[in-house]
Amino acid sequence: KPLLSKRGMLDTGIQGTTKTYYVPVERSEQIQRQRMQLPVYAEEQQIMEAITQNLVVVLSGETGSGKTTQVPQFLLEAGYGDSGSRNPGMIGITQPRRVAAVSMAHRVAEELGSHGHTVAHQVRFDTTVSSQTRIKFMTEGVLLRELTADLLLTKYSVIIADEAHERSLNTDILLGVLSRVVRLRQKLARECPDKHRELRLVIMSATLRVDDFAANERLFRTAPPIIRVQARQHPVRIHFSRRTPAYGDYVHEVVRKVSKIHRRLPEGGILVFLTGQAEITYVCKQLRELFSGAIEVEGPAQSQASALEASVEDEDVDVGDGGSDELGDDFAYDTDSGSESEEENTVIVGDAEDGARQLLLAENLRSEAPTATSPASGTLHVLPLYAMLAAEQQLRVFAAVPAGRRLCVVATNVAETSITIPGIRYVVDAGLVKEKAYNTQTLVQRFRVGWTSQAAAMQRAGRAGRTGPGHCYRLFSSAVFNDQFSAFSWPEVLRMPIEGVVLQMKTMGLDNIANFPFPTPPPREALARAELLLRWLGALDAAGHVTELGKLMAVFPVAPRFAKMLIVGQQHGCLAYVIMAVAALSVGDPFVREPCCDDAEGAGKSADLIKEPINQGDGGAEDTPEEQSTARRRFWQAQARLAGSEPTSDILKWLTVVGAVEYAGGSDAACSEHFVRPKAINEIRKLRQQLTALMQTYCPNAGAKMVQRMAPPSKTQQMVIRQIVLAGFVDQVAVRGDIAGYHASEDEAELRRRGLHAVPYMTMWSSEPVFIHPESVVYATARNSGSMPQAVVFAELQHSTRMWAKVATIVNSRWLATIGQPLCTFGNPLSFPRPEYNSTRDEMTCHVEPRFGPRSWPLAMVKV
Ligand code: ADP
Ligand code: MG
Known about the structure:
- Belongs to the DEAD box helicase family. DEAH subfamily.
- Keywords: ATP-binding, Helicase, Hydrolase, Nucleotide-binding.
- This protein has 31 helices and 24 strands.
- It is of the alpha/beta class and about 850 residues long.
- α9 runs parallel beside α10 (about 275-290), α20 packs across α21 and α22 crosses α27 (about 680-700).
- The longest helix is centred in the N-terminal third of the chain and has 23 residues, at about 170-190.
- The two termini are about 55 Å apart.
- Adenosine-5'-diphosphate binds near residues 61, 68 and 69.
């Protein structure tokens, strides 16, 4: 029951008009001034009343309005957060992204001044949590993991689920579980109030569709109140391009647009939205080259009003001397409009209905006269922002911009809602987003660069209106926006593999997954398939209950496949290697890529064209020049030296290279010498430490140890490691199509003459042939032996020009009979033309050479 204070006001910890707080915080004057400008700050009383009176509250407000930074502070001051306080238990805030969890924790600590030490963050590789912690920022994954150990979340008095509009897989699961935990704690608090307290849930979201979780009866029996914070959003003028650049040209178009803005428009930061690291690196480089020093720009004599208009109308922008060639004439457009103008029409968002405001804006913009010190005559302060960037570099976007320079941040969609960069006035939006898309039908996982949603594009535009009226330049036409953009982005639960969360839910005792209150339920087949995989991995029994093995697997913060590899990895002295392999696979490709052919991040079509090996004469991975980076040549040398055998696995390649870097001390210098990304190496190391510690706790007999300088695996160990990889990827075996009765078409016969890349493989889930990715080390062995391996397991399937099986490991098809036993039917090979999945029996039928009985297993056979 809400307490009433003496004056009859609801006791939210804020009493009367001169606010007094349970936890008085002293802040610097500057911080206090900044806070007072935030829309959320003005609503403190209303927000705290709602939280006091309701166990679940939805808070929706424009990005940058102060939700993430302010609400935890309100709660702290109102006496939440401390075991000795009125509301014992920490304040937990979940974020979908590590970047945001860390940077927001920093910011809140800074704002809290002397109470800063009570703020901590916990993300996968990094935690600052101590006994003093009252406000804990964490990723959703961290809280989900805590839930498996303590479903009641007894350490917390309130959980803030931030960025709920993003609909990440984890947010959805978290909201589903938390809706139940809140009810459970309420019940317990009623029954034994001296032992239990209620848990409060605050769901925070940008101003996007909130009904999926707010008005969702399966989630909350009575709909939680929605507080909408009106942000002071300045109008943003949206400029559509008349024509949409041809696919692949948007990168150049971005450079051109930024150059134009910088040279012609009044001061104000520029924020560019692109899709990935490779492009961002490229654009940053281009911009730095163009604007590195003092450049000659048009004199300020030109009237600003005309400059503004000209900026968007004039095609013939000439950027410096070198620039014009690159950025010049040869833009391809997708329409045949012959108009000179590149701009189509403009729309004003923000206070759009208010015609008077629009006029005012136009006036404002026109009246901004240029001065001789306009930043256009200075240089551009270009900063990249993407998830893979090292943390301290990410924080640079908040630092003061050097005097006389204009800030230009080139970002992925991290800057869309979770991070608000100060001082942005111009947004350049390519309109694209790169998402890891996963087809739940074919299980094909791919990075897909596609149009973002209309809602996301509006969010991006809104970034320009934080500090004053702004402009958003869209590199696509309004027709494309209207016809090809979906209204909202798809929730992740419909696009991602879900076996990990299914296992976690089962471990929490939520057995009936089909009835789980998903904000958006995944398709039933996807759930069924996840359960099936877990059964094959031995994590679930036939009845769908979690097994002891499954419980153990859930302890490790990695995908179930990888957890399985760790557990079977305790054989033949391989554990340290398996831990390293799992860490590397979880973190992802550690290799440095050439900009713009960055397939690791899937830079889209252009990358595919570069990588497509079929057109490269008589084939062989060797013949694709971009492929032959020094990193790979180094690997060959290392592999030959260390292993003394033919390369058999891309995972072993990763192991060799990561091992070599660590052997050399793991420094940044060692990384660059081996052409790997220091951030990846650091993360792999941290994950190894974490996995090793978990192994020591949960499998004490395995003797897990963290060794910096590991000897390379012996030949036997290499084979065992390959078998362990197979144990984790039992369902991702690709068998040579031609031996299994696949008839190559003439076309393919022709292709085969040209290169080994054309050899088709069959997998269990799809009738479409797959091909081993040209980057794979498998080809080196194949070139020597003259034939491709009969069977490989692959860690990833990527669809681009064709289905590429990536990160391949050669396996012996005989191993399948033991390691993949639940999936195998044993019989005459001729009657099983290709591995087949029988859905009624949940079995994969795969060809296993019948003359090899269980007696002739290779010496080191893994027990599964
Ligand atoms: P919301 O969660 O509603 O999107 P935030 O609480 O994240 O809003 O941000 C509120 C304000 O705090 C923004 O104007 C943002 O620019 C500012 N801010 C956030 N982090 C920092 C930082 N590290 N340094 C300076 N300002 C910051
Ligand atoms: Mg926020």
